[in-house]
Amino acid sequence: MMTSHSAIHPLTGFAQDLRAAGFLGEIDTDRALRAAKSTDNSVYQITPDLIVAPMDAADLARLTQVLARPGFADLHVTARGGGTGTNGQSLNRGIIVDTRRHMHRLLAVDAKAGWAEVEPGMVLDDLNDQLRPLGWFFAPETSTSTRCTIGGMVSTDASGKGSRIYGKTSDNVLGLEIALPQGLLSSLAPTPGWAAPMLARAEAAVRAGRAAFIANTPRLNRRFTGYDLERACPEAGGFEWWRLFLGAEGTLGLISRIRVKLRRTPAEKRLLVAGIDSFAHALAAATPLLEAEPTAVEVMDERVQALAEQAGILSRLPAALQAGAGQRIAYIFVEFNGDDAALLAGRVEQARRIAATLPGAGAIHAAADLAEIRELWAIRSAGVGLLGKVDGRARPVAFVEDCVVPPENLPAFVHDFLAVLTAHGLGFGIYGHVDVGCLHIRPALDIDADADRAKLVSVSDAVFALTRKHGGIFWGEHGKGVRGAYLKGWIGPEAYAALQAVKAAFDPQGRFNPGKLVSPRDDIMGIASTPFRPFNAPEGDALTRAFRCNGNAQCLSYAASTPMCPSFKATADLRHSPKGRADALREWHKSRDPALEADLLGVLDGCLGCKACASSCPVQVDIPTMRGAFYADYFARHARPLADRLTLLAERHSAWAVAMQPVAAPLWPIAARLAGRLIGAVDMPDRLARRLPRRLRLRAADLAPGAPPLPDRSVILVQDWFSALFDGGLHRDMIAGFQALGYQPRVLQMRPAGKAAQAMGHRAGFQAMAARLVALLDAAAATGAPLIGMDPAFVMQLRQDYPKAGFSPAAVMMPQEFLAAQKLPARTLALRDASPVRLMMHCTEASARPAAAQEWARVFAALAIPVETPAIGCCGMAGLYGHQARHQTVSRKLFEMSWRKHVTDDMQLGATGFSCRCQVERLSPAKARHPLGLIAAALGACPRPKAQE
């Protein structure tokens, strides 16, 4: 029954009616979520009014049915997938339909015929990961493949590496299903009677404008799509209405199902990477290299190389390709795919010969190993992500970055393009697909400045004209978005009128993604009239990184085996991601809206504090640090919860608690249960660590001037308060491991590092604790013995957070850093147990120090102990987070997503983090030890314990 809305706001009434109609997904007006959905990878910001996340196609149909009711005629609807658009494609007012959250299933696969059917919210890499065992893949290889959705690719007609061979998304789609008020309409099933009049109107519009459309579209590999009048009415006859939706950016309706064409996975893959002395020479090299028939030829200019060099990314390149001091290099990446290894080898050799004779040619490296090829491509992708991480108020902006011209015209086009940028005084970075005439050129602008907004318009106009001059198109890869303002002038009045008629046939009220591409009204969004997002924070502002977030959305990677971002992986809720939190923090900074502040508290509480965003995000949007700044502001105005006060008190007095361990140990089980109830925690450690013998402890008094020197080969183990109080197994394992390797370990007296105080925004408490710890570390370092941290999260706090707070502590190493650099006395050690070890890395450690797993592998290899280090994400514990009752669902889901499968067999299990070992013991029958404990056991120095202390 339809509700009367005379006294109800349309959005409220819509939400009520939608739920009454049986809608199963989320319906949300949360301000933090709306802020998160207000931006993408562009410079624009439009805040929606309502977010809905349908569960399936039936939910989409319910949505359209309720929207068709007269009381909601003014509500607008825009579909959103991964939100990776570079030009505001999925930004709009009204209702945002989030397909990524729930509609991400692989619905059907025909491995014989070579097709698959997916929901629009399925991520590209997820689809290909599921297809890989069957020997198929979906071809368009986008740089955002870890987070872009198939629906978004269809809507923007996305393209990427290899498109010269495989085509764009529109070349790899076989059919669609869309949701309409009358029901679901599929191109793969007979047309229902109710749809016939609508399709007849659309076909008439297409036929009327087809000739004009063809006359105004260049014949290019990266062809123009979106309302594709040409292919909707093929020469052979018929009307393929669904082709109109490919590249239409949601302006014609909501897609509920997609059938994609699959390609056979090539048996062989090769990659040639060449260093060239300048981008000009690299650009000129592309055409000669095409003679070797590669799958793709891509370039990266000297500016991107310099950024990647500064970030340490290029250290992962083969040594011959790395730049010398002060050297600038442009790189060419040439990929070959096929099933005939001998044929491929010949093409690679031909390309090598061509590259060696090119002007400015330097080192050339050929890769055949799939893991190395993936790594080399990852280096190229990571370098591009760093374009947003530049100093100053102006940053590279993607607004004219995917123009396409015939490859033979590319040098002249680039010459003219760069002349435009020079005339405007703009810096830039360049990379792209030279084999198809598509270069990504990102001019650096300060979008907060009126002068630079004017340059955005002026440069856009000039580059649009250049694409016409050189026989190309303005939108070759990333869709149009607000650049659709140029569409009418580009396609011509006759063809545009046909596009308008198509729009009217499918969306007569103009409700789907209004203001984009095509409209019967004069209301198309403009590149300068669309609202811009704030670009810079005031100098020195604590939330600067929230403003630096450019929507690249690397934090939205679907893969459970990558650390960033655990709370998003568990929820698929954009507000619980670094990008979403940055958007909400930025909006709060601007508005100080109390309602937003209340929503923001809940969003920040869901952050695990793993710090993966501080290192894995291309622009290092450090949410835990900014959360601390927000809490400092908030709790200066509000009382802290009791649980927070008790946690801060426990940390501040933890050194006293360690000193009282012998007395407190018998009482701890009762105290733990009481503390758990007071702070809302579960599964608290049920025993205290035993106090170490005096000979193994190193007190502050032992570091005073005149104290006896430490023995030769001493190492000083530095503990955090959790390790000191609760992890007796860690003490035993690290001491035994170092002793077995011939070292003299001493455990430094514990001083809390202030991690809880810092995370909760208690600045004074953190500063006081940090100052005391730094003084102790400096005194310990003065002994000359190496300092080695006992827990990776503690060491990374010293490295990441202390310098930001103005502290310069003495260097504290990870165990594997120290040991990997030593000459281990393997020949003199009697290996008693060479059982294989599976070693699980702490997520903070893995993201901040990617070499950590390889360093441990070198240590184990030196001792002839087999070891494997699987790629994993967060275990879900993250210190106190995993003990808090309100976080149990997410904590346990994260363990199931990434860790469970690695702890179900009998292989010896190692874990570097205290949190990780606790989570394994809590949620599985397995026991995990610190790797040094496993080493000690293998050397017969420390037996395997019956239970973890």
TrEMBL record:
Pfam (any one): Fer4_8
Domain FAD-binding PCMH-type: 44-265
Gene3D superfamilies: 3.30.465.10, 3.30.70.2740, Alpha-helical ferredoxin (1.10.1060.10), Vanillyl-alcohol Oxidase, Chain A, domain 4 (1.10.45.10)
Protein name: FAD-binding protein
Cofactor: FAD
Classification via InterPro entries: 4Fe4S_Fe-S-bd, 4Fe4S_Fe_S_CS, FAD-bd_oxidored_4_C, FAD-bd_PCMH, FAD-bd_PCMH-like_sf, FAD-bd_PCMH_sub2, FAD-linked_Oxase-like_C, Helical_ferredxn
One term of GO molecular function: iron-sulfur cluster binding
GO aspect biological process, one term: lactate catabolic process
Sequence ranges assigned to domain 4Fe-4S ferredoxin-type in this UniProt record: 598-629
Domain of life: Bacteria
PROSITE patterns in the cross-refs: 4FE4S_FER_1, 4FE4S_FER_2, FAD_PCMH
UniProt entry keywords in alphabetical sequence: FAD, Flavoprotein, Iron, Iron-sulfur, Metal-binding, Oxidoreductase
